[in-house]
Amino acid sequence: MKRVASIQDISCLGRCSLTVALPVLSVLGVECAVIPTAVLSTHTIFPDFTCRDLTDELLPIARHWQSQQVHLDALCSGYLASPRQTEAVCQVFDLLRARDTLVVVDPAMADHGRLYKPFAPDFPQHMKKVCARADVLLPNLTEACLLTDTPYREEADEAFIRQLLKKLSALAPRVVLTGVSFDEKRLGAMSYNRETDRYFSYFNEKVPASFHGTGDIFTATVLGGMMQGRSLEQAVALAVDFTLECIRCTRADPEASWYGVEFEKALPWLAKRGAEETKQG
Ligand code: PXL
Question: Which pTM does this prediction carry?
Answer without folding.
Answer: 0.97
